[in-house]
Amino acid sequence: MSCGALLRRFPRVAVTAATATARTALTSRALSDQVDFYSGSKTEDVILRREERPAEIQEAYPDIDKLERFGKYVAAILPKYVQDVRITSTKELEILIHPEGIVPVMGMLKDHTNAQFKALMEITANDVPGREYRFELVYCLLSHHYNSRCIVKTYTDELTPVDSLTPLFKSADWGEREVWDMYGVYFAGHPDLRRILTDYGFQGHPQRKDFPLTGFSEVRYDNELARIVYEPVEVAQEFRKFDLDTPWELFPKHREAPEHLITEGGEGEKKE
Question: What is the pTM of this model?
Answer without folding.
Answer: 0.68
